Amino acid sequence: MNVLFVSLIDFKSLNDRNIYTDLMRMFVKNGHQLYVISPTEKKNNQPTRIYRDKVQIEEKDWTAVILKPQIGNIQKNGYVEKAISMFTLDGILKRAIKHYWNKVKFNLILYPTPPITITEVVHYVKKRDGAKTYLLLKDIFPDGTIDLGVLSTRGWRGMLYRYYKSVEKKLYDNSDFIGCMSPANCQYVLSHTPKVDKNKVEICPNSVEPLDNSCDKATRARLRVKYGIPENTTVFVYGGNLGQPQGISFFIDCLQRVQSRRDAFFLIVGDGTEFRKIEEYISSSMQKNVKLLRRLPKKDYDKMIGSCDIGMIFLDHRYLIPNFPSRLLSYMQAKMPVLAVTDPNTDLGTIIEKEDFGWWCESNDVEAFSQKVAEALASDLKIMGQNAWDVLVKKYNVKDAYQTIIKHI
Predict the structure, then answer these.
(1) Boundary residue ending a domain (153, 182, 204)
(2) Is the same domain home to 250 and 177?
(3) What confidence tens digit (pLDDT) does each residue in 381-402 have?
(4) What is the pTM (predicted TM-score) of this model?
C-alpha cells in the first residue's frame, strides 16, 4: 500500500525519534511504501529536493521517499509573514505532488494539524487516487487563538477567524477519520462541530516507540555536572516551547513562590517568544534554585532529561480547547512522574492522577502549585516513575496507534 504523510515537520530521516517518525516507521516496518512531505522553510536556503531515506528497523534496512519542497517562513517569524506563508502552502505542496508523484497512486493519506491549510492538497489526492484520509488532530485551530486573544470574532481579526473556521470545516469534511489525542479532544470536536460524523472521530493519542531514557547513578551525576545542575536535590524540569500557550507570566509567579526552597531545583530548557521574559526574571531576581538553558538537540535533551526527577507541563489557564502536549511522553520515557499545571478543560491532569504518575493543579493558583511541589517532594518518585513507564508502554505505544489507523484500510 502506498502511504502519503504530509506535515510541516522538518526532519531529515525517519530514523529520527518523535511522535511522527515513530509512527511512520511502523508503516514501513509493516511493508507499506511510504512517501513523506517534510518541507523546508525559505530561510534555510535549501532548494526543493527529493531523496530515498534508508530506514533502519530491527537491523534491517527499509526505504522511504522524502520530498522537501521549499515553503515560506512560518516558525519564529512575524504574524504577517507567517500568514502569507500559510496561505501559499497548499499551492506549493499540490504542485510538488503533481511534479514528483504524478504517476504514484496513494491508498492512504496521513496528515497532522497544525496546519489546517493543507485541505486542498488532501482533497486533490483523495479525489485523484480514491485514497482514504486520516487526520491526526494535534491542534484545534483556530479556536485556540480565540482563547488566547490572538484572533477575535469581531473586526479584521474576526474575518480571519471565520476564514480559518471555513478551512477547518473543509479539512474535517475531507477527512474519512479523525484521530484525537484524548477523550476530551473527541468530546470537544463533536460538541463544537456537530456536523462532523461521530463515527469517524476516535482516540489516537500521541504515541512513541518506547525507549528507556532513564539513567544510572553514575550517568546521572556526570550529566548534572555537565549542565550545572545541583547533584543532591530534587530537580523539576520543564522542556519545550516557551511561548504564550504556556502562560509564562504565571510560570514566573510559580518560580517566585518556591524560591526559598532548598530541597527543589527548577530547570527550564527551551526556546520561544517568551524566553527573554524568563531570562530577565532570573537575572533580576537572582533566584538560586532555577536555571534556564536554550533548547538542546533532541539526542542531548533526551539524555539530559534522564538526570532529572520530575517533569513539568504548563498551559495557559485561558484555554478552552483541551490540549495534550507531546512533551509528556519524553518525561514518561525517562521514567519520571509529571507535575501538570494547566487549564481545567484538558483531561491531561485527570489522566496523570488517575494512573498515579503525577500531580495536577490549575494554572491560576500559585499556592496550589506550591502545595503540589511539596506533595511531590514527599512522594516515592521511583514508584511513580515506573508507573509512568508502564502507562507509556500500555497506552501510548506507537504499535497501538498504527493498529488504530490501519484497521480502517
Answers:
(1) 204
(2) no
(3) 999 999 999 999 999 999 999 9
(4) 0.93
- CA dist 304 and 29 (Å) reads 29
Domain final residue, candidates 171, 204, 237: 204
Q: Per residue in 112-133, pLDDT tens?
A: 998 888 999 999 999 999 999 9
- Say whether both 117 and 261 belong to one domain: no
DSSP label of 346: S
Cell numbers for 312? 513539568
3-class DSSP state for residue 225? Answer: helix
Same domain, 58 and 153: yes
* 239-258: pLDDT as tens digits: 999 999 999 999 999 999 99
Inside any domain, residue 400: no
Kindly state the greatest CA–CA separation across the chain: 65
- All 3 cell numbers of residue 141? 485551530
Query: Cis peptide leading into 142, omega within 30 of 0?
Result: yes
Rg (CA), the chain: 21
What is the C-alpha to C-alpha distance for residues 96 and 35, in angstroms, rounded to an integer? 12
The answer to whether position 89 is within a domain reads yes
CATH code at position 12: 3.40.50.2000
Q: What is the DSSP string of 363-405?
A: TT-HHHHHHHHHHHHTS-HHHHHHHHHHHHHHHSBHHHHHHHH
Q: Which helix (H) or strand (E) holds 234?
A: strand 234-241
Say how far apart CA 231 and CA 224 lie, in whole Å.
Answer: 6
pLDDT value of residue 79:
66
CA 187 from centroid of its chain's CA atoms: 20
**Same-domain status, 186 and 227:** no
Residue-range definition of the domain harbouring residue 307? 217-395
Calculate mean pLDDT across residues 189-199. 92
The burial of 123, by beta-carbon neighbours within 10 Å (0-12 exposed, 13-18 middle, 19 or more buried), is given as middle
Please indicate, yes or no, whether residues 316 and 196 belong to a single structural domain of this protein.
Answer: no
Query: What pLDDT score does 76 carry?
Result: 65
The C-alpha cell at 210 is 518506547
Residues 70 and 129 in one domain: yes
Residues 272 and 325 reside in one and the same domain: yes
Average pLDDT score, the chain: 93
* Cell triple for 382: 521511583
Question: What is the H or E stretch that residue 313 is in?
Answer: strand 310-314
